[in-house]
Amino acid sequence: MLDRLSELFTDRDFIILSQKRDISEAFIPIEVKNRYHGFSKGGKLLFSVFEESGSWFSRQLLKSARPFTISVVDSNNKVLFKVVRPFRFYFHEATVTNPAGKKIGSIEREFGLLTRRYLLLDSSGSEKYEIAASIFSPWTFPIMSHSDEIAMVKKKWKGLTTEFFTDADNFGIQFNQEMDAESKALILATVLLLDFIYFEGNHGSAAGMVFDLLNI
Question: What secondary structure does DSSP assign to the chain, as a single string?
Answer without folding.
Answer: -HHHHHHHHTT--EEEEEEE--GGGGTS------EEEEE-TT--EEEEEEE----HHHHHHHGGG--EEEEEE-TTS-EEEEEEE---SSS-EEEEE-TTS-EEEEEEEE--SSEEEEEEEETTS-EEEEEEEETTSTTEEEEEETTEEEEEEEEE---HHHHHHSS-EEEEEEE-TTS-HHHHHHHHHHHHHHIIIIITTTTT-HHHHHHHHH--
